[in-house]
Amino acid sequence: MQTFLAMFPKQASTHAAEVDQMTVLVHWLMLVLFVGWGLFFIFVLFRFRRGANPKASYTGAKGKISKGLEVAVALIEVLLLVFYAIPAWAKRVKAFPSESDAGVVVVRVVAHQFAWEMQYPGPDGKFGRTDPKLVTAENNIGIDRTDPNAKDDIVTTNQLMLPVDRPVLVHLSSQDVIHSFGLYEMRVKQDAIPGMSIPVWFIPNRVGEYEIACSQLCGLGHFRMRGFITIQSAADYKKWYDDQEKELQPAAVATPTAP
Ligand SMILES: [Cu+2]
Description:
By secondary structure, the protein is α+β, with helices and mostly antiparallel strands. About 30% of the residues lie in helices and about 25% in strands. The strands form two sheets. A five-stranded mixed sheet has the order 3-2-1-5-8. Strands 4-10-9-6-7 form a five-stranded mixed sheet. Strand 1 (about 105-110) and strand 2 (about 115-120) form a beta hairpin. Helix 2 (about 15-45) packs antiparallel against helix 3. The chain starts with a helix and ends in an 11-residue tail after the last helix. The model has no long low-confidence stretch (mean pLDDT about 90). Bound molecules: copper (II) ion. Copper (II) ion binds near residues 111 and 222.
């Protein structure tokens, strides 16, 4: 199992180990089936060769072994489904953290050809209005700064900053075609679909710099649709967050803000 895991990207989220364990188990099963069926195929080629069996049998194999093996394989698949896949799905995909919880970092991620735009709601906790009509080369997300909720919103391109060990709730959408938000070290992958806001969540647990890869062929520039995700300590993240807020309100008196 460890040899398999050495080939995987680093595990940088709390659920990564569980996803990897599932992947490894499924691959062991596939390996056993592949070798088993391969050997059986070669055996059959010899055993039922024309020279030894001039007349074909129309009934086929009737032994108990083949039936037993098929039942065993089906049983293993049911066990994987019931004891790994379904509980993991319930925990990973269905059980979202609460948006109103102060410990949860909420971010909007908007994909477009060929970059990622991030929008943080700011201290007021409310996302400002965005409008496709306002999209320009400088304002890729089309944020309306005249909206009171938008005044404190932090917007970044191709750079997602997150604190370590806190649940992250991403609202994922797309401005044009289908993209896919792929965070390999976090074991997160979710399609971004125009007209939909899809929630994704994870808990990053390893400080570092990772890549956001678009995992859907989304056009000619797909190869360069590459963003970065930086996981920082709580103090570093707060510093970055406060600096961003200060830049947004240069005239305002510095007031302490909670991330
Ligand atoms: Cu893309």
